[in-house]
Amino acid sequence: MQYIENKTFDEIRIGDSADLTRTLRPQDIELFAVMSGDVNPAHIDADYARDDMFHRIIAHGMWGGALISAVLGTELPGPGSIFVSQSLRFDTPVGVGDTVKVHISVTAKDTASHRVTLDCTCTNQAGQVVIDGVAEVIAPTQKLRRPRVMLPEVHLHERGAQYDKLIKATHDLAPVKTAVVHPCDALSLTGAVEAAKLGLVTPILIGPRTKIEAAAAAAELDLTGLEIIDVPHSHAAAARAVELVRAGGAAAIMKGKLHTDELMSPIIDATAGLRTERRMSHIYVLDVPHYPKPLFITDAAINIVPDLWAKRDIVQNAIDLAHALGVAQPKVAILSAVETVTPKIASTMDAASLCKMADRGQITGGLIDGPLAFDNAISTTAAREKGIVSTVAGEADILVVPDLEAGNMIAKQLIYLAGAEAAGIVIGARVPVILTSRSDGTLSRLASCALAQLFIHHHAQVIP
């Protein structure tokens, strides 16, 4: 165990000194910005910083001041010290990768007040002074020796970073004509309008005109230039959207304020719907904190208990979407409760069959392995500890779940416990269906529109 120990006022001598060395990392700047609320673009906006006087991201000045405080509080005088005052001059900026050495030395003591004055100097790796100044503390009078507290690991996650990449990838693509079904609340209507502003979709709003206009007024949205098809209710809106697609008037469908079964019922109709030879399936694309890439989960919304042949289409749909997002050879983990084939667990048998179907060319375009338990699919450490040798284990792009219940639970746990952002679409119909939860925010809706736009352009199904 490590300890920190102070120097009492009586132990301190003029000329006593202490040092600390620290190299500035990007996460130090981000963490200081989060803690302080200082979002000055000189510290966190690379594009801005490139053109300012320093031509690079620099640390907050008080990051160096905090290092001085750390030495005073842990080394000299150490625990029990009371900070009274500090004056600092910032001479040279500190950039990412710079190594700062903090040096403090005692210059004066006041016996009556137990105050100690210290010179404070911070220099960089080139010997340049970056900060200098004077600190005054009340030194402790009692000896203290305490275990050094082990700080928790801090992981910073930029909310929506993966989705920003998706949206940026659509910048050179034409917007997609999209039938927006029953957008009669602020969330769904805002999602459609904002997606139009970003050039993701050209929305055709289908629903009761009075309700759509009332929602626009409540959300202070301008619908000028947007087409509205007036129908009496949500069932009629879903049916009209399908008719529009069949007539060539739209290349995608987007869910508004209605239940998923209301939206999907006319889409899956065997006679007048949008069926193809491929089974339809829903694919979540999650931006999960601490996972380095988008995580696909399928199927958590359409197929309740899919059989082997349905799972084959579910896997292929997810691979096709991953290709559209630029993942050349997605890694597909077929999930179960265990990682060995066990006849009593049907999902392990399906996993083994799907892997063999991939070997025989019945599923193409990805690397497939299973059965894999959830931990083995997303953690290389877990896979290694269980001795699993696999090109997929620990690095999965796509998680294929045994049934809808399992998929829904996994996705919702990641969303509500791990802080994941969720986008999602249905693949396998004539056109993609942008299917989000009624409670999803604008970011999720925009990301879902980006998924559809990328998929449509990848397969050259654009309706101008």
What is the number of beta strands?
A: 18
Please tally the helical runs, counting DSSP H or I stretches of 4 or more residues: 15
Overall geometric form: elongated
Mean pLDDT: 93
Residue fraction in strands: 15-25%
Report the CATH topology name of the largest domain: Isopropylmalate Dehydrogenase
Quaternary structure of the protein:
single chain
**CATH class placement of the largest domain:** Alpha Beta
Provide the low-confidence segments as ranges: none
Helicity range: 25-40%
CATH architecture of the largest domain: 3-Layer(aba) Sandwich
Radius of gyration: 29 Å
Label the structural class.
alpha/beta
Provide a descriptive summary of the structure in words.
This protein is an alpha/beta fold and 464 residues long. It folds into two domains: 3-147, Hotdog Thioesterase (Thiol Ester Dehydrase, Chain A, Roll), CATH 3.10.129.10; 161-458, Isopropylmalate Dehydrogenase (3-Layer(aba) Sandwich). 34% of the residues lie in helices and 23% in strands. The protein contains 15 helices and 18 strands. The chain has helices at residues 26-36, 41-44, 46-50, 61-74, 161-169, 186-197, 209-219, 234-246, 260-267, 308-324, 346-359, 374-378, 380-385, 404-416, 442-458; strands at 3-5, 17-23, 82-90, 99-110, 115-123, 129-138, 145-147, 176-181, 201-207, 227-230, 252-255, 281-287, 295-298, 331-335, 367-372, 398-400, 421-427, 433-434. The strands form three sheets. An eleven-stranded mixed sheet has the order 10-9-8-11-18-17-12-13-16-14-15, with helices on both faces. The chain has a five-stranded antiparallel sheet with strand order 2-4-5-6-3, covered by helices on one side. It has a two-stranded antiparallel sheet with strand order 1-7. Helix 11 (346-359) links the parallel strand 14 (331-335) and strand 15 (367-372). Helix 6 (186-197) packs across helix 15, helix 8 packs parallel to helix 9 and helix 10 packs across helix 15. The model has no long low-confidence stretch (mean pLDDT 93).
